[in-house]
Amino acid sequence: MNNSSRTDLSTLGEFGLINRIKSNTSLRNKESIIGIGDDAAVLYKNENEYTLLSTDLLIEGIHFDLTYCPLVHLGYKAVIVNLSDIAAMNGIPQQITVSLAISNRFSVEAIDELYKGIEAACKKYSVDLVGGDTTSSKTGLLISVTAVGTVSKQKLTLRKGAAENNIICVTGDLGAAYMGLQVLEREKQVFLANPDMQPELFGKEYIIQRQLKPEARTDIIHEFLSLSLQPTSMMDISDGLASEILHLCHASDTGAIIYEEKLPIDPMTYETAREFQLDATTCVMNGGEDYELVFTLPLSDYDKIKNHPSITVVGYMTPKHEGVKLMSRGGNLYDIKAQGWKHF
Amino acid sequence: MNNSSRTDLSTLGEFGLINRIKSNTSLRNKESIIGIGDDAAVLYKNENEYTLLSTDLLIEGIHFDLTYCPLVHLGYKAVIVNLSDIAAMNGIPQQITVSLAISNRFSVEAIDELYKGIEAACKKYSVDLVGGDTTSSKTGLLISVTAVGTVSKQKLTLRKGAAENNIICVTGDLGAAYMGLQVLEREKQVFLANPDMQPELFGKEYIIQRQLKPEARTDIIHEFLSLSLQPTSMMDISDGLASEILHLCHASDTGAIIYEEKLPIDPMTYETAREFQLDATTCVMNGGEDYELVFTLPLSDYDKIKNHPSITVVGYMTPKHEGVKLMSRGGNLYDIKAQGWKHF
Q: pTM for the whole thing?
């Protein structure tokens, strides 16, 4: 290796690194339909279907904190984040592999707890655990999950494909997982200061559950089918709505306008944000880990979803030159900027 | 979690842990054909083919040592070990995903080197890098690779399926990767004791290459096709021949006899083992990381492979009650016992 120049990884950031890898990659195989850059890779399966492939790495001390994340929930969540990526392509997950690196401080009983959560997620989503690798780790716990899913060729939905005037929809409510994390972090600090204190989580159950035990919106994928809806673009909300809207606009070559007053925020999220002197909208836009879906539809589909209890229209796609904007309650336009996760 | 009992992971070992996970797992999905327990999972693809799925985790300080393993080779090897698992099912690899956890001590240039190796392996084996995940790590480097391959339904080869009197064949030569590791470890110690010393690797090129830059025997999979050979059982040799023979016998419900004098050992492996006062046969049986294939064939296929330069017949399958034995050069029978890797 040439050591003459050294560029710090932080100068690239995660998305920069992904783009760098992607730009050095070409697809040779006619069965590789779509590679790096969407929520999942798309592979040829048969005449009617594609195989979807998605993978995520969860690392102790970076993605989770075992002080407040029970292993059974961690196992569950590690599966969910991957199933969510398959759903984001309008696909149905079918199999997962789970690889673990485990340090000696974990007992067999602890690993059983972790797998209990993995198995619970598999059962709920009718997914099979079909493989993996286990090894020791010198430090903490590491979980690498790969999910495989299927989508019919006509249903495949990418980040690109949205058009001007398409409506932008999100599922569920947003920002709750982030506020749940704030509560858990606060109680951890209280506990560290005084180990006799019991954590005060009463009245915060919903947002804590959203953080510790998220769900993947495969239910919405089935609804799309029964409502004959074909999203024009879609991804899952893992890094916060701001980051995801920017991805959809970038891939689809559009601008967008999001209305602050339309953002679906649970009252508990809102109250807790106030308690923490945080702006709820900022939590929604930049919080992350909601694992809801954001997708676009032709305006003509509006009637099909306008009364749907789990779908909210939050804005629409605009011409690219109009930029990606948030219209505040006060009627001011702000540029949407990604924060997402900064790993490096 | 119930903390009342605590069982150390080391009491289970890696295979014990895999068996424990496997026994708690059931397949719900009719498209999940074979789950945990073979070299790769087998999934329904279409009328004529199965999809193969394999995953491996490589961790700094456990699976590799960057003191003597250049990043470009590490990237190459991380891909190869997974392609080897696909070959072991008589399949052809088509895509991989690569996830990385990287600490700040790695520069962009270092990651470029790693991907140069990944890309070189992809190019050589006509495989596409289609996805992955990148994140920071608190300590070292971690690589998680998942490989996807295809096998025609009639060609799928499992660990089970061998019958009594089937001949046992191996590809290439064995034990070289292990001896290469011994040389590299020795030179590392010399270097640590005196950083001015240059490593003495002259004359050890082949075995060092076998350790640092192994290959996957997809060439043999193509040969099977052209020779109209259908192995009755197969796996790749990653943990040493002893461990793999035991797996094949266990899965196929057979015994086996392996002839020490037949084991294919490169002269450099043999010489180096002598130099280190190691028994070359032990290195072959328990060394690991050769990434050759071991497979069984009906005796009637013997003529097709007897003069093949890359295939050696090392023994045959026996009735289960005769056990799994090594016949020494001196004519003594020894039980074959697995050592493999002990991670915990």
A: 0.94
